[in-house]
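Lab meeting minutes (informal)
Scribe: AK
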Amino acid sequence: MPYFINVILPIPLEKLFTYSISDAEASFLKPGMRVAVPFGKSKIYSALVHEVHQTAPTIYEAKEIDQILDEKPIVTAIQLKHWFWIADYYMCSIGEVFRTAVPSAFLLESETLILKNTKIVFDETTLLDDEFLVFEALQHQAILRVHEISAILDRKNVLPVLNRLLDKNIILLKEEVYEQYKPKLVRYVKLGKEYRTEVGLETLLHSLTRAPKQSQVILSLFQLQATQKKPIKVSELETASKSSTAIIKALIDKEILEEYYIQTDRISYSNEEDNSDIKSLNEFQEEAFLAIKQSFDKNLPTLLYGVTSSGKTEVYVKLIEETLAQHKQVLYLLPEIALTTQLITRLQDYFGEKVAVYHSRYSVQERVEVWHNILENKNKAQIVIGARSALFMPFTNLGLIIVDEEHESSFKQYDPAPRYHARDAAIVMAKLHEAHILLGSATPSIESFYNVQIGKYGYATIQRRYGNVLMPEIELVDIKEQTRKKRMKGRFSVRLFNEITDTLENGEQVILFQNRRGYAPILECTTCGHSPQCPNCDVSLTYHQHKKQLRCHYCSYHIALLTACEACGSSTLDTKGFGTEQVEQELETLFPDAKIGRMDLDTTRGKYGYEKIITAFEQQELDILVGTQMLTKGLDFRNVNLVGIMSADTLLNFPDFRAHERCFQLLTQVSGRAGRTKKRGKVIIQSFNPYHQILKQVSTGDYQAMYQEQLYEREQHKYPPVNRIIKITFKHKEYNKLNEAAEWFTKGLRNAFGVHVLGPEFPSVSRIRNQYIKNVLIKIPNGQSLVKTKKSIRRLEKSFNAISQYASVRVIYNVDYI
C-alpha cells in the first residue's frame, strides 16, 4: 500500500497538503522533519512533516516529494501541538505560525535557474538585442540566476525577456533548493604526523635552520601547546610567532603542519565556570519565593507583583537555580531587546555558559545554532533569554517559564500573523510541557490581576524595595501655568531645570522620558498653516534634525527638509510639538558641560546599539540619558537620582480603552529607575493637567485604586477582562470599496451577535502604505462560547470572499486585541 505525508507549508493555507512517498522514505521520515516539496506550477518549498499515513487525498492527486532535508526532526511534537493551538486561537493558518516560528534559514525556497536548451537549432539573427545578451551569456556559463541576468541587462524586470526566450524554446527553467545556513568552521593547525616523534622533530628543526621565520612558527607552536591543552587556532599561531599567513601556508604545503577545521558556535561565553554565588534573599523576597512555590505545587500560573527595585530578578535567579538542579530547561521572556543586554551579563555571572540568547537582532546563522543547542538540550542552552519569538524554541525538557514585565504591550505581535500574545501563549506552552510559569511586574496588567482575584492565578508580592530604600518622591508640575507666565526654559519647567542642575552638581545621573522620537512631529508654515503630509499614510511627516529629513514613522517615506512651504512658498516654517532629539538639543544648550545620550529607535538600530548606550550610562560616561519607552522597562542603573517626564499628557489623551492603565504603568515604571541604591530618588512629572486622577495615583503609587477604577469602567462598558475582544481590520486601496465591504461584513456580524459589535470605524491613522483601514470590534461576554463565535465569523468570511467585488479586500483578525 502506498505511503503519504501531510505537510505544513510556510504559506497561509487553511489545510495541510498531502504528498506521496516511497516505503523507504516512510520508514525514515518522522513528524517535525523538513522535506522539499513542489507546490503550484514550479515552486519548491521546504515543508514540515506533520504525519505519515496511508490515506490518499480524494480531491487531488498527490505529488512526490522533491527531497528530504533533515536527518532528524527539528521541531518537537509539543511544539507542533502548541503551533496548532496558536493558529486556532488567534485565527490564522498553521503555515503562518510555521513561517514566524522557525529561523528563516529553515524556510528554504527554490531559486529559478536558467539553462540553455541544447536540443534545438535556431537562427541567432532573429533574437532581439536583450535576448541575444542572455543567449550569449549562456554560451559561456551553463547556468544563470535571475539576479545575474538582471545585472547583464542592467534592468530590474527581466521577466518579459525570459518569457520571450521561453516561447522560442531557447532556454529552460529549473528550480533549485539551496541551504541558507552555513556552519562556522574555525581553522586549526597541528604538527604533521612524521614530525611528532623526537627524531622527526629534531630532523625538522635541523632542516629549517636556513628558514628562521618557519623555524620560529614551529617553536611558537610548541610553546602554545605547552601552555594550553586545547587545539591551536591558525590566528593564534600567527600572533604568537609574529609571522604571516603565507609562512604558515608554506609549512602546510610542505606537510610540516597539518590544518583541520572544527565547527564552532558563532556566539559563545568565554568563562567556563560560574563567577559568583547566588545572592541570599531578604525576608520579603523569601516570603514571595515561598508563596510562588506553594502556587507551583497547585500547578497554577503565578503572578509576582513586586514594586520597582524590589529585587524580583533575585527571586527569578533562585527559581532558575532550583529548576537547573532538576536538570530542566528555563525560558526567560522579556518584552524588549534592550532589557536582555543587562540581564545576560547578570545571569552569565551566576550560571556561566548555560545562558543562551535568542532575538531578532541576532543573525539567521546565530539563531539556527541556538535552535539546535536547545533541541539537543546542550549545556550551553539550559537558560534561554529572549523577546517574544523565543517562545517558539524546540524545548525538550522545559521546567520553568518566566515572563518578566508581563504587562508590556510589546509581548503582543501586531504584524504579520500570527497576532499572538506571548504571555498568554506561554501559559498554554507551560501546560503542554507540564512546566511552571511565573509572570512578574511592578505594574501588573489588569487582566492578570483580575485572574488573581478570581483564583485563576497564584499570587506573590514584594512591597518593599531591596535594601529598604524608599520609593522615589514624585512631584507633579503644572506646565500650563508656567507656560502662561512664560517661565519655561524651552521644554523644561523651572522645577525640573533646578533639579537637573542639583543632581549633576552631586555627581548623579538623570533620565528624561519623552515618548516620541525625532525632533518635532509637525513642521508647519506659519503663513498659511500647511504641514507636509506623507503621500502613503494619513499622517504628517516627523522632522528629524540630525538627518535634516522629514520622515514618516509608519512607512519610512522621507524627503529632505523643506526650505519653503510647498503650498504658499513662504519660508516661515516652524515646528509643533517635540521629540527626543529636541530635548537632547535643548539639554546641550542648557547644560553645556554635561555628557548627554539619547536612546530611541534611531540610535539603537545596530546589533549592539542598545548595549553601547546602556553600558556607557552604567559606567557613568553619560550624565543625562534622554529616551522613549525603551528606558522604562526593568533597566537597573545604580547612580540615577532624578527622572523627568517631559509631558505626561500625550499618554493620557490617547483614543484607547487601555490608555489610562498604560499611562499608569509607563509612568510608574520610568519613575522606578530613580534612587535604586541608598538615597531616595526624585521624579518630576510635567503635565498641563496635574490634577488628573491617574497622575495622582502614580504620585502615590496606588495600584489598587487604579485597578478598582479601571475595572469598574470596563465592567460598565464591557471591555476586558470582563469581556473578550476580537478586532477585525479591513484593508483596501480603494476608499469606497473598503466602506462597502466593511458595512456588508458588519451587518452579518450584527445579525449574529447583536449589540456586541462596534463599528466599522476608521482608526486615528486611517491610511497606511496607501491602504485604507477600517476596524470592527466584537465584544464577547463571559458566558458566550469563544469557539462558536470564531466559527460564526469564519462562516461569514467564506460568504464574504464569495462576493467577487470584495475578494480583494483584506480581512485581518486580532484576537484579544491590545
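Next up, CB showed the second protein from the same session:
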Amino acid sequence: MRRIKRSALAMGVCLAALQLTSITPAMAQEVAVERSMADAPYWDSSLPVAQRVEDLLARMTLDEKVAQIITIWDSKGEIQGQGDDFDPAKAARRFPDGIGQIARPSDRLGPSSPRQVPRRNIEDSIQYVVDAQKWAMEETRLGIPILFHEESLHGFAAKDATAFPQSIGLASTWNPDLIREMNDLIAGEVRARGVHLVLSPVVDVARDARWGRIEETFGEDPYLVGEMGVASVEGLTGVGTDRKLRDGQVMATLKHMTGHGQPESGTNVGPAQISERTLREMFFPPFEQVVTRTAIDAVMASYNEIDGIPSHSNSWLLNDVLRGEWGYQGAVVSDYYAIEDMARLHKIVPDYKAAGELALTAGVDVDLPEGDGFENLAASVREGKVSMEQLDTAVRRFLTMKFNAGLFDNPWPDLALAKQSNGAEGVALARKAAAQSLVLLKNDGVLPLALPDAGGTKSTIAVIGPNADVARLGGYYGEPRASVTPLEGIRALVGDRANIVHSLGVEITKGDDDWWDDKVELGDPAENRRRIAEAVEVAKNADTILLFIGDTEKTSREGWAPGHLGDRTSLDLVGEQNELFQAMKALGKPVVAVLVNGRPPSYPAVAEQADAILETWYAGEQQGTAIADALFGRVNPGGKMPVTTARNVGQLPNFYNYKPSARRGYLFDEVTPLYPFGYGLSYTSFEIGAPVLSAKSIAAGEGVTVRVPVTNTGDMAGDEVVQVYLRDEISSVTRPVKELVGFQRITLQPGETRQIDIAIEPRAFMMWNRDMERVVEPGDFTLMVGPNSEDLTEVTLTVRP
C-alpha cells in the first residue's frame, strides 16, 4: 500500500509537469527523484532493517539528517492552524526537510497545564497524528514518517486513559508480574492512538527523600528497582530482546542515566557527588539489567553532573559503559532541554550550538523536546566541528528505531481500539494495583473497621482532612474517565450502615493543586485554624476518625526550573496538618492516619500517636475504592516500603544497604529509621521458617536457591513478601551490611503453609574489586530471609574459587 501511494504521488507530479508550458531541468529532476523514492529499497519491508536504514541514509541531505534527530513541542503552534489542528502548509514552510519527532500529540501546545489548555480528546489526538503522518509520508521528499512520543510513568498521560498508582506506590507492591501486566495495558492504550514511543520507566535509585522526584522512582534498592524496571519494559515492548516492535506494544525509554536519585542537598538536577564504585554498585545495576535483558530502544541521559561532567557530555557514561560494557545498540535521547542546559545552567560551553556539538560527540543521538541544541548541527558539520560520520551514527540509530517500530509500513492509529481506552479492564487493573500498593505501617487493633449488618446500630465515622475528598494522582498524570476519592469510596462501601461525616480540616495549598503551576502558596494559617475548629465539631461525636493527610502534587514534585520548585528541607507535614492531627487526637477517639503522598512518611508525631497508619501514596484513579476496601477489611494490605523512612531530615541520606562504618549514632537522637526498607504489616500474621539452601557451598559463578516455609498463622487471608538479603563477610573492599538479592510476594489462606523457592543469581555474589574489576571473591556469605530488612534469619554459604 505504501509503495502504491508513493507511485501515485510521483505520477501526479509527472502529469502536472507535462501540463506546464515549459519544463525546467530542476522540475524534471524533482519528478525523477519522486519516482525513484517510490521504489527505493527502504520501502521494502522484506529487507533487513539495517539495509533499509543504510539505503535511506545514503539518500538524505545534510539538512534532512539533522531534521530527523530534533523534536517539536514548544513550537507546535508553528505547525498548527485553527483549533490547533495540524496544518500541512505551515509544516512545509517551517520544516521543509521533514520532522523527526513530535512530543505529546495529546497536548495542544507545548509546556502547559491540561487544566489551563485542555488535552485533545481521543478523536482529535488521532486525527492530529493521521494528518501529520500523511503530510510527512506523502508531501516530504523522502516520505519519512514521524515518531510520536508520550509520557506513561504510571499510565498514559492523556485524556481518557487509565491512571495507575504513582511509581513509588507500584514499587510497594513488590510484584513484577503486576507491573508487567499494567504496562502491557498502557502500551495498548498508547499504541492505539498512533504513538510508538513512551518516556518511561524511571529506574533512578532514589536515596534522598528531600528530592521531589522520589515519587517517580521504584525506591532505594538497585535490585528491586532493576526487577521493576525490567518488568515495566517487558510490559511495554514485550518479553525478549527482539527490538522489532510487536502489535499493541510501544518502545520504551529508560530514564535517567544516571546518579539522578541522590542529588546534592536533595535538589533536582543538582550535582551527584558519587564515586565510580558507588555508581557501579548502586546506580548502574538497574540500567544494566534493563539493557541486557529487554528490548529497550531508548536511554535518556540525566540532567545532573558527575565529577564535574554533565551526563549529556559524558562519553565514558554513554559510550564506554552503556554501549561498550553493556552492548547497548539503541539510541540515547536527551532529557528535556538538557543539551541547552550545558550552556545556560552548567556553563561548560558558550552557546546552544556548542552544546549540541558536545552532546553529539559524547553519544547523545536525539534532542528532546524542541531541538534548540541540535538545530545548528548542519552548520557544525560544514564547519568541521563534528564529522558527518558522527551525525550519520546518530541518525542511523534513530532511523533504526523508526523502522523497528514499523512506521514505514503501518504507522496508523486504531480509533475503534483507542475508544476502548480506560474501559472495564483498565479500571479493574487500576483497582488491583492500588490495593496491592497499600502499606500498613501501624495498627493498634483499630483496623480493619467493622460494619454492623443491615438494621444494626449505626456507628459514626468522621472522614477528615485535606486529602479525603480528592483523588490525587501525582506528577506526570493522565486524565481517567472517572476517578474515586477516598470519601467517595468509603461512602460507596458503607452505604447506610454507618453515618459518614466529613470536614476539610485544613487547606494544604491555595488554588487547585495543579502540578504544573509554578507558584506554591500554603493555605492561610488563620483560616486553617478556623477549619480545624469546624473539623473538631464535626468529629466530636464520631466513633472513629479517618484522617487523610500528606502532600499535594505541589508540595512535593519535580523542581524543573528555579521558578518551579518541588524539593524540600523537611520531611514532616506542611501547613497546619500537625495541628489538625493533635486536635483530632485530643477528642479521645481512635485516629487512623491515612497518608496520601509521594515521599516517605516521616511524620514523627503521627507515627507515635496515631492508632493506625495506612500509607497509600498516590494510588491512581481507583484509590478511593482500594483505600475503603483496605480500611474495612475487604482487602488485606500487603505492600512493603520500597524506601527507608528517616525519622527526620538530619538522618539523610538514609538507606538500608549502608557500609559497616556508617550509622555509628547521634547525640540526642536515634540512628535507627522510623520504618525500615521492606517494612509493612498485615491484618493477619505470618511465620517465616528457617531458610534452607540448595547447597551449602557453590563455585564462583554459580547461583543458589533459598527454600523457606511460610505459614499464615492468623485468621485472615493475606499477602506476605519474603525477602532475601546477602552479606559478604570478608572482602577486599568494603561492602554493604546487607543487599537485597531476591523476593517473592505470595498469598496465603489462614493456616496455609507453602514452601517458597527463591533463586539467587550468580551476579549477587559479584563485586567490584580494588582494580574496579567485577569479580567473585571466594569466602563466606551470609544469606538472610525475612519479612523486611531488619527482622531476618541467617544462614551461611561458602563460595569456592
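CB comment: The two ends are 61 Å apart (CA to CA).
No objections, moving on.
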